[in-house]
Amino acid sequence: MPPKPFAIIAGVGAGTGAAVARKFAAAYPVILLARNPANYEAVVSEINQSGGAATGIIADVSDEESVKKAFLKIEETYVKGKDGSEQGRLAAAVFNVGGGFIRKPFLELSTEEFEGGFKSNGYVSLLEPLLVTLESSNQIGVQQLDISTSSTSLPGRHLELNPVLEQTRGLSILSFHSPPIALYPSIRGSAQTSAFATGKFALRALTQSLGKEFGPQGVHVAHAIIDGVIDIPRTKGYVFEKEDAKISADAIADAYWYLHTQPRTAFSNEIDIRPYVEKW
User: Fold this and answer.
1) What is the pLDDT of residue 193?
2) Which distant-in-sequence residues (6+ apart) come within 8 Å of 265 by Cβ?
3) Contacts of 112 (CB under 8 A, 6+ apart)
4) Angle at 157 between CA 152 and CA 163, to 5 degrees
């Protein structure tokens, strides 16, 4: 029996992370990472009660040891069987972390506040244990790595060179751009957002660098620029002239899935998502 694919979503709350979790849970078991278990408990229960499979794990992506512990648990639970055989294969990894946001004059920032924006977004301590997990599930080799935005459920979309695995699913890793407000931080640094913009600029640069390094091997690395207010619980009080001026979290999840299911002959390495009324 071929290894079963699963997906990891880092940065899960009641908004975009939950929408992405539901989308991918329709095809795979999902593992949801968040610093506070209260952020993922409701969506984990919802998915499991509706017939899907979801697990929540506490993890702070800005803390290397926290991330390593989370991925060790993932490897022990999902990747390797009790007899050491391969039972699971990572199909998707979505980096949906929006932490580190602070609006404050640069000269008033503390060192901790400035570093917080970079560690939550540009440092990405998630990356090393993710690659170790891939290696453990035989998805990384001398000739192959597969990174993108969401997981692949269509036949022939995987990027493994081993013909025996031709019908297995590939892997996707998405880097997510923005908080639930219109700041455009990985493209344009706004006044008093220097800490956050620094981290988001770094995240976009990392995504581009990985895409160019691994693209020739068939690796899909994608970055999503979310330019607008996302319609989630904490933005319900935001009122605009147009009722549909906010970005639907479910629509963002659909866009991530679309990126994932792209064939390697037509990869998008960066996409912009914005409502029709947003100025750009």
Assistant:
1) 82
2) none
3) none
4) 125
> In 181-242, at which residue ranges do the beta strands (DSSP E only) sit?
221-226, 230-231
- Give dist(CA 218, CA 171) in Å, integer: 11
How far is Cα 226 from Cα 274, in angstroms, rounded to an integer? 6
Backbone phi, psi, residue 247, to 5°? -85, 130
Q: Is there a contact between 247 and 226 (Cβ–Cβ < 8 Å)? A: yes
pLDDT for the residue 132 = 58
Question: Which residues, other chains included, contact 143 with Cβ-Cβ below 8 Å and sequence gap of 6+?
Answer: 161, 217
Whether the Cβ atoms of residue 19 and residue 11 lie closer than 8 Å to each other: no
* Separation between Cα atoms, residue 234 and residue 201, nearest integer Å: 25
Tell me the residue type at 77. T
Q: Are 43 and 21 in contact (CB under 8 A)?
A: yes
Residue 124 pLDDT? 61
pTM score of the predicted model: 0.79
pLDDT digits (tens, 9 = 90+) for 70-129: 988 998 888 876 666 667 887 778 888 876 678 889 899 898 888 877 777 666 656 666
Average pLDDT rounded to a whole number, residues 120-140: 59
**pLDDT number for residue 144:** 32
Burial tier of 104 (Cβ tally within 10 Å: 0-12, 13-18, 19+): middle
pLDDT class for 263, splitting at 50, 70, 90? confident
Distances (CA, A) of 120 to 60, 98, 116, 133, 190: 9, 7, 6, 21, 18
Question: Pairing between strand 221-226 and 173-176?
Answer: parallel
